[in-house]
């Protein structure tokens, strides 16, 4: 044990930091090390308490956590990732006593505000003190990441005060959540926030328009975006993402889920091809009669993309296919996918380093070609990709409803 105390503190810190990277989700090894000696205990705490998840279903904060913070207040400064679930139980909202606990977290970098209930939690119904503490966390100088899940009437213009915010993720945020709480509305001269990453789902059209100034004064500078993820269920969302792509010239990552066709995908991406390095594309083809034509369209768009000057290094394609039953149509699908295999040949692209293709059948009936197909069949359809160790091809069975 004496040998441990002879080590410089920086070495102990580095050892535990490296252990975190290979530890399990429960940090079992780090927790075991914290019991080994005082030196390990001190350096383990910042990893053990780096992430805290609170669920208001329990109505009151966890007693053990309150006791730990009372005995060792500095633990609050170790919390970097905070998840707070506003679950409503029997129409009861979170206890205001959560405010006393949350205000001790002074170095939060990532905040997730979620709701596990079916109905969204209306922001203005949350106890006033608790709302103030959550706004306080969002204005911390360490704050960088905000995720909102199923929260209604969030005061969006209040984000203008979150000057260090760099990543925003929206999920199940309904279009009627646009009203702004006057108490947190910022002045019109606030500088635009340099958001680096933005994720939106199909409910976020109107909110996105307001946040980026397509409908009113912007809060975020769209040209500062480096990463963009969008779930385009309708053409309106697809058009909005197109406008965002036109206004940003530095996008390096794009994840796009398209439901309504991709006949102009290459042109869609042309403004960002000089900067785009990672492109993740999901495409849903739900009409059996259109599978062949749309696979042709997809192949042509990627061929056009390849021919344009680009620096794409990583391609990920996930296809949701309504697989036809009859053998003749199945053969057509197989031929179309084989044609896509040739287009995605890494040797034909200037910068491409890896390709992944995932085919998901959205049928619930059994189709031998695409429900857990043998490796030999995938090799027959994708011989080029599967002969390259930098590529991955897999098939996902349909989800059972």
From TrEMBL:
This is F-box domain-containing protein. It comes from Pholiota conissans. It comes from the Eukaryota.
């Amino acid at each position: 044990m004496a040998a441990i105390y002879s080590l410089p503190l920086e070495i102990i810190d580095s050892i535990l930091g490296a252990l975190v990277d290979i530890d399990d989700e429960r940090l079992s090894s780090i927790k075991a090390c914290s019991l080994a000696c005082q030196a390990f205990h001190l350096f383990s705490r910042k990893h053990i308490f780096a992430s805290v998840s609170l669920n208001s279903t329990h109505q009151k904060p966890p007693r053990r956590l309150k006791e730990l913070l009372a005995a060792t207040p500095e633990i609050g400064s170790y919390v970097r990732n905070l998840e707070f679930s506003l679950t409503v139980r029997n129409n009861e909202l979170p206890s205001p006593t959560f405010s006393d606990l949350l205000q001790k977290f002074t170095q939060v970098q990532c905040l997730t505000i979620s709701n596990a209930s079916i109905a969204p939690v209306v922001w203005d119904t949350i106890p006033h003190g608790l709302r103030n503490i959550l706004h306080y966390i969002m204005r911390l100088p360490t704050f960088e990441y905000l995720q909102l899940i199923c929260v209604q009437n969030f005061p969006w213009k209040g984000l203008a005060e979150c000057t260090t915010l760099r990543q925003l993720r929206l999920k199940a945020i309904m279009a009627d959540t646009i009203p702004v709480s006057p108490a947190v509305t910022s002045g019109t001269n606030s500088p635009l926030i340099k958001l680096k990453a933005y994720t939106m789902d199909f409910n976020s059209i109107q909110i996105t328009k307001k946040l980026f100034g397509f409908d009113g004064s912007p809060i975020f500078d769209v040209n500062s975006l480096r990463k963009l993820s969008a779930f385009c269920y309708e053409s309106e969302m697809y058009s909005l993402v197109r406008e965002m792509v036109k206004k940003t010239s530095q996008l390096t990552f794009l994840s796009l889920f398209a439901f309504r066709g991709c006949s102009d995908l290459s042109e869609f991406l042309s403004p960002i091809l000089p900067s785009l390095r990672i492109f993740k594309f999901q495409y849903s083809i739900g009409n059996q009669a259109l599978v062949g034509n749309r696979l042709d369209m997809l192949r042509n768009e990627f061929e056009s993309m390849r021919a344009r000057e680009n620096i794409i290094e990583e391609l990920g394609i996930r296809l949701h296919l309504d697989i036809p039953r009859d053998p003749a149509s199945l053969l057509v699908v197989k031929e179309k996918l084989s044609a896509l295999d040739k287009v995605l040949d890494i040797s034909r692209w200037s910068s491409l380093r890896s390709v992944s293709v995932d085919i998901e059948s959205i049928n619930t009936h059994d189709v031998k070609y695409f429900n857990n197909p043998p490796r030999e069949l995938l090799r027959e359809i994708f011989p080029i990709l599967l002969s390259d160790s930098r590529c991955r091809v897999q098939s996902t069975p349909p989800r059972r409803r």
